């Protein structure tokens, strides 16, 4: 049952990213992020009484707020990357970096990665190179690296998103277990406030067609639901296994992109996606 919860959280995370990216293709990203984050915050407020009462300290709430800044930025960058690029390339690239950031922080703090982790990091670097190969050199949104190689649209945004999401994980990891879900609520309050202010400052319209609004709300609700499923699984099952399974969320995004959008990838990119997923398993499974 625990493993089913973890796998379900991965599937829901991937579906949330898919809906958010799809909505961002039809309206401005700031509006999608604000609506989705707000929807997730409301759902969390509803679910909060169902969980054991928490006693967050000021430090817990501070780390939650920092997590909100990093996580909100990461989601915005991810949604934009999914909107302009191939979901099958963007999703695994972001996931790999989001895992590598906490690993790098652990090394800086004195931990020495096991050979399995080092292998995962090396494989992750290979994966990023492979998924960055552009199968169609005529795509107007592609950009070229320093070596003159055309890179898929959204790769730069995906890399930045991965770093931001990795910082989000690091910030939440600094909160205490006794804080319950309150740091996550603090994170959502901060992200909603920041993107609300951004929308006002840039005079961005929040109006969107009903189908797009439904996708944005659905993406935010699914993202928060995935958080709840992961939390339940991590508290009753082996953390290493739960985290590993939950980190396979790009597979869900890729499957939906293939089934719904009919995205086709080159053989090099398919190999890169496989390497990315294996790298996530190696890194998270060995360090959790």
Overview of this structure, please?
This protein has one domain. The protein has 11 helices and 2 strands; from the N terminus they run αααααββαααααα. It is 75% helix and 1% strand. Helix 2 (29-47) packs antiparallel against helix 7. A hairpin with a 5-residue loop joins strand 1 (143-144) and strand 2 (150-151). The chain is globular, with a radius of gyration of 18 Å. The longest helix is centred in the N-terminal third of the chain and has 27 residues, at 58-84.
Notable characteristics:
single chain; two-stranded antiparallel sheet; 288 residues; mainly alpha; 2 strands
Strand order of the largest sheet: 1-2
**Category from helices, strands and their pairing:** mainly alpha
Summed up, the helix count is 11
Describe the largest sheet.
Answer: 2 strands, antiparallel
Strand content: under 5%
Distance between the termini: 20 Å
Blueprint (SSEs and pairs):
Elements (H helix, E strand, L loop, with lengths): L1 H23 L4 H19 L10 H27 L2 H22 L6 H17 L11 E2 L5 E2 L3 H19 L8 H20 L8 H27 L2 H8 L3 H12 L5 H21 L1
Antiparallel strand pairs: 1-2
Helix pairs in contact: 1-3, 1-8, 1-9, 1-10, 2-3, 2-7, 2-8, 3-4, 3-6, 3-7, 4-5, 4-6, 4-10, 4-11, 5-11, 8-9, 9-11
């Amino acid at each position: 049952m625990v493993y089913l919860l973890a796998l379900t959280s991965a599937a829901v995370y991937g579906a949330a990213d898919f809906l958010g990216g799809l909505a961002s293709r039809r309206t401005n990203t700031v509006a999608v992020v604000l609506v989705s984050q707000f929807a997730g915050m409301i759902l969390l407020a509803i679910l909060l009484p169902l969980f054991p009462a928490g006693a967050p300290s000021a430090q817990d709430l501070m780390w939650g707020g920092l997590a909100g800044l990093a996580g909100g930025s990461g989601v915005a960058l991810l949604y934009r990357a999914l909107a302009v690029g191939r979901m099958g390339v963007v999703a695994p690239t972001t996931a790999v970096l989001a895992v590598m950031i906490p690993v790098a922080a652990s090394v800086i703090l004195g931990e020495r990665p096991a050979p399995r982790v080092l292998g995962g990091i090396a494989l992750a670097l290979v994966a990023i190179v492979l998924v960055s190969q552009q199968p169609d050199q005529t795509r107007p949104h592609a950009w070229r690296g320093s070596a003159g190689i055309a890179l898929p649209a959204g790769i730069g945004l995906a890399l930045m998103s991965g770093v931001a999401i990795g910082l989000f994980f690091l910030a939440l990891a600094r909160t205490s277990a006794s804080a319950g879900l309150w740091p996550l609520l603090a994170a959502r309050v901060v992200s909603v406030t920041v993107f609300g202010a951004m929308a006002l400052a840039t005079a961005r319209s929040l109006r969107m067609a009903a189908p797009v609004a439904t996708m944005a709300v659905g993406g935010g609700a699914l993202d928060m639901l995935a958080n709840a499923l992961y939390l339940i699984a991590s508290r009753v099952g082996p953390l290493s296994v739960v985290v590993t399974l939950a980190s396979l969320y790009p597979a869900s995004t890729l499957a939906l992109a293939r089934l719904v959008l009919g995205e086709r990838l080159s053989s090099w990119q398919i190999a890169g996606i496989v390497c990315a997923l294996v790298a996530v398993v190696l890194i998270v499974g060995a360090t959790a």
